[in-house]
Amino acid sequence: MQAVILAAGEGIRVRPLTRSRPKAMIPVANRPIIEYVIDALLKNGIRDIIVVVGYRKEQVTRFLNGLEVPVEVVVQEKQLGTAHALQCAESLIKGDFLVLPGDNYIDPRSIARIRDTTNAVLVKEHPSPSNFGVVFMNNGLVTDIVEKPEHSPSFMVSTGICSLKKSFFSYIRGTDITDAVAGMIQAGEPVRAVPADDWQDAIFAWDLVKMNRRLLKNIPKAREGTASRQTIIQGQVSIGKGTRIGPNTVITGPVVIGDNCEIGPNTVILPDTSIGSRVSLNPFSIVGDSIIMDDSTIGSHSRIVDSVIGERCSLGDHTSVTTAPGLMEFEGHAIRSEFGAVLGDNVSSGPFTVFKNSIVGNNVTIESQARISSRIVPDGSLVI
To answer: 203, 230, 250 — which closes off a domain?
Structure first.
């Protein structure tokens, strides 16, 4: 069986993190999201894989070229929707196939459930159904799919993963695969609804914290770095090569730490934390329930929780991040949110900066003692 992974989109609602990378390449538990999709396919014996790339295609292609399994790459020159992205791969598809989004987590058991069912949609209940294609069912069959309705009568949504025949292409009229599936149903083709076991999408940037929490449950223990005798390490903790853990540091898993990091001394890493490579966590700081990407530095006496910190950020001493509820405006709508901070790449903040429920763009400079609360700071800003 073949599989087509759609990884051509940007992921606009996950900005600022997708300004410099496709959503499929955002690291969660220190691995790009698309890697989990490929792993789920391989564990089901599916090795004939096509990946459609587009936005910042070089990054995805470079990653795919480093995999042990060969992957066919197809380019969508203009991002004209999921149906158009799938059409870009049509000439390579020989028969029945799976189509999957490259920026959602999916587990191998869910792939096993849908793999052998032709003309099927993998479905899952979601608390925010209006962000997806809402699925209506009767006796296990899909009766209709409505893409992102303003008021949804159902919590059952399409995961975007479908098992299809090649004849599916004849139903494509618009830009979305969901519309084509709805066209199949209207034409009398039975489409089965298959419940997913474990699936998650990060709709907004702060949802990555929840995805990270889920994926860290599966990390294996590893100790490739060095740790002081006075370090306390508990639970599932993975420490990369060249990483040094200073004395009197306490790490409670699940936690993953990349290569060549400097941690401590006298620091605390709480559960559900992913730390990339070449990260510095300075003394007397606490990090928990967060993603910290490569080459970032956290100053001493800081507290970072419930946050996503992009690459090459430098946070001054006594930085404080606090989880708080708030409202964020996206595409003209007010969205309820509750998190600490989302920082893009190359953010620099001075000592005693406080973040609450805020998104900070790329290449932002924040002077000392600033308070960033329930707001979005645009790329390239100077906060005084």
So the answer is: 203
